[in-house]
Amino acid sequence: MSRTYKLYGRTTAGSHAVQMVLEEIGAPYELIWVSKSPADLEAYRRVNPAGKIPALVLPDGTAVSESAAILIYLSGAHPAARLAPPAGTAEHARFLQWMVFLSANVYETALRCYFPERYTHDATAAGIKEQAIGDYVRHLETIEGVLSPYVIGESYSAADPYLYMLASWYPGDMGALNARLPKLAQHGALMRRRPATLKSDKDHAVGE
Ligand SMILES: N[C@@H](CCC(=O)N[C@@H](CS)C(=O)NCC(=O)O)C(=O)O
Asked: Where would you tag: which of 53, 132, 143, 178 has the fewest CB atoms within 10 A of its CB?
């Protein structure tokens, strides 16, 4: 049985954080780009029936989707990489809280920003996007309040690449965001010192 993970990704998509975590772990993986062509999408639905990026196929062939679930799974499967506090501790509860917060709020807001037309049947997409940008800042402000310097405090965890990726998708004025949220800006700078971040940044900027 191959011990290699298969990561299904796309530029500027949720596979970015998963690749960062696989790089942090040092696990062997193959990055498979999924284009938006109907043929690629139809084939990809056999991996993730929802058709959303990312998906990770485990070495035993199990396909897992939902970015937060993939990151939490990898943290637990590779404890030596110390990407999450030990399960059952209060620190782990806080880790789970922020992983779900990022997925349910920040990721959701990003999707509303980039696909506003999916949230309306009439011509109000511009208003939906405007509201979503405000929500984006509000959710990032909540995280700014706890960054110290990482999401769960002094220890780096899988929540950090997740936050880094989601913050990088902010569609408004990034300079203004950095000025308003200095701890988030500092978090981004810390992340860019890590080879795993740079590798995933580079691959996800280019794609196949
Ligand atoms: N809740 C999902 C959201 C995944 C998602 O919506 N991914 C986007 C890319 S970032 C996508 O596949 N969009 C294509 C589409 O919706 O058609 C997760 O966290 O993995």
From this structure: 178
Which of 10, 18, 52 is the best mutation target for the ligand 1 pocket, counting ligand atoms within 8 Å of the beta carbon and taking the most? 52
53 exposure class (CB count in 10 Å sphere: 0-12, 13-18, 19+): buried
Q: Bridge partners of 31? A: 7
Per-residue pLDDT of the chain (208 residues; tens, 9 = 90+): 568 999 999 999 999 999 999 999 999 999 999 999 999 999 999 999 999 999 999 999 999 999 999 999 999 999 999 999 999 999 999 999 999 999 999 999 999 999 998 888 877 778 898 999 999 999 999 999 999 999 999 999 999 999 999 999 999 999 999 999 999 999 999 999 999 999 999 999 987 7
Q: How far is CA 116 from CA 36, 67, 70, 154, in A?
A: 19, 21, 26, 36
pTM: 0.96
Q: Write the DSSP symbol of residue 57.
A: E
Pocket of ligand 1 (CB under 6 A): 13-14, 52-54, 66-68, 103, 107, 111
Nearest CA-CA partner of 21 in 147, 150, 152, 156: 156
Whose CA is closest to atom 16 on ligand 1?
52
∠ CA 48-51-52, rounded to 5°: 95
